[in-house]
Amino acid sequence: MPLPLRITLRVAASITLVWALATYLPQYFIITGGWRGYVVVGLLLAIMNMTIRPILSLLTFPLRLVASLVAFLIANGIFLWLALEASKSLDPSLTTFHIATGFEGWAVAILCIGITNWILKFL
């Protein structure tokens, strides 16, 4: 899609969004000036989305990375805990499953299983 068309569509979408928010959520989003106000605020949002958002995305990347890693660790920890709990219902003569050394053992197991699952997902 040509750049001028993309910019036009972004501006139109921003103006439409501003109008919709002001119309359907007036208790939260208040704009005066009628259509002129919608156009000005929509243009501001579109211009800021095209110029400032990439900079903010770059600046907040470390925070998003940390949040993703924490979510990754929590999800894999729950996955491992569920496997541990499910193994308790198995006959002990068949198998037992335990993670030793407390937090350190859990951390190593979570990382190893998570990284292995991540690699297998791409293969």
Query: Which regions have little confidence, pLDDT < 50, spanning 5+ residues?
Result: none
Strand content: under 5%
What count of structural domains? 1
Work out the helix count.
3
Most strands sheet: none
Q: H/E element string? A: HHH
Query: Structural class of the helices, strands and pairings?
Result: mainly alpha
Oligomer designation: single chain
Compute the average pLDDT.
94
Morphology: elongated
How many β-strand stretches? Answer: 0
Computed Rg: 25 Å
Short description:
The protein is mainly α and 123 residues long.
Give an overview of the whole structure.
With 123 residues, this protein is mainly alpha-helical. The protein has one domain. The chain is built from three helices and no strands. The longest helix has 55 residues.
Secondary-structure map:
Layout: H1 3-24, H2 34-88, H3 102-122
Helix pairs in contact: 1-2, 2-3
Provide tags for this entry:
123 residues, mainly alpha, 3 helices, 80% helix, 0% strand
